[in-house]
Amino acid sequence: MDYTSNHAIKIMLVLLTMILLFHALILLKVVPYNIAWGGRLKSDSQMYVFEFISVLINLFLAWVLLLKANVLTSVVSNSTVDIILWVFLVLFIANTIGNLLAKTMFEKYFSLLTLILAALIFLILRPQHVIAQVKSSKNKGANAGVYCEEKDGKNEIMK
Asked: 57-90, pLDDT tens digit by residue?
């Protein structure tokens, strides 16, 4: 995994920790639940169900990210981890749209967070061959098929 993907995973884990703390504050009723979930929750029992599901989903995503970063021993294949992350990417894009349509202004601001999370997952999932092409294109000279190579501290033009 490359440097950018590792940093994207670390940023996502920090953001997920903050999101989990926010959900904990809702569960403890420090933050009123009427500002979350698009302002659609009508009772404490609804809030507990929605918050419990949200906490589980966020913990699952953190677990998948730790698998992707090889911090935890994987019990599933890398392709399964990638498929799960693609599903989360689609969910975050849909969530961004849903947050923009929320009843409360507070939740509309969360569309920025979900958009950032989607962008971070995209950075994690982008194909490695694209990264290699970008890195190799930085070494290319002005002409197609010509690139610079450093040899003994000097740049040489190669074909």
From this structure: 999 999 999 999 999 998 899 999 999 999 999 9
Specify the pTM.
Answer: 0.75
DSSP state of 141: -
102 lies in some domain: yes
Is 156 among the domain residues? no
* Terminal CA-CA length for the chain: 30
C-alpha 127/C-alpha 150 separation (Å) is 27
Full residue range of the structural domain in which residue 72 is found: 3-126
Six-digit token pair at 76? 């599933």
In a domain, 139, yes or no: no
Higher pLDDT, 61 or 134: 61
Residue 108 resides in a domain: yes
In the three-class reduction of DSSP (H, G, I as helix; E, B as strand; rest coil), residue 52 is classed as helix
User: Residue 146 corresponds to which amino acid?
Assistant: V
- Quick check: helix, strand or coil at residue 112? helix
